[in-house]
């Protein structure tokens, strides 16, 4: 079978078939909502679909049309340089997608295409639009320009305005199975150690994005070290806790902390659920929310990493019964 952009998509066969059918019928629609867990390929498939829509030399396979993946148009799309494609996301050091970003996008969508027959945009992650941005987008969804395609990508469709959701065709993505993850890691991380890949699959929870991060040997080593430190919080002095915060606030280590902390807290919550301790589950969920907020603020408003981790470690130690 001839290689195509859709042939690189693993694990979402039913969704791919429906999208290819829409292309084959010449009815791609004007607005879609791709929702589901993080790191399973929502944005990747959105981009592959746009490549297929734009490709001037599509190839026909047994189940529909697809972009060739090799022509200049496909390469421009893949690299994010095509003049008729826009990818919108939260800007660096910002916490939300702003109304100015969305207004700029709606102007872009309204212009006549320069090279392709369509104008297309991906909003990733659409749930991070502020209220004004969401309302600005709604106007475009209500009266979409002819020949335009807008794909909203999110893990949290419930955070979007109901009026936005109702104006989109929807595809729900699921977690990937181990066989799909194995195929993807062999292709995307061929240099990684096979043992690390296998460990990554076990830790990924069905997300290839998470699995790719776990393939890094430093991530696995960091997991073991940080988990040991966190497991010991209940029996450590305040001075020891502050020293751990200093060590983990160093830039190279701190880059690992958000995901490792999330994983560790999730394991604690799963254990409390298994033990039937509903009260403790509620306390842990409140703590995880506070920890996530602190880490996000550290990234977006430049809080001091060491002080941030001190606050987090103290909070987690108190969850383990320490009184300080």
Automatic annotation (TrEMBL):
NCBIfam families assigned: holB
Organism encoding this protein: Candidatus Magnetaquiglobus chichijimensis
Signal sequence residues: none
Pfam families for this protein: DNA_pol3_delta2
Gene3D superfamilies: P-loop containing nucleotide triphosphate hydrolases
Top-level taxonomic group: Bacteria
Protein name (Swiss-Prot/TrEMBL): DNA polymerase III subunit delta
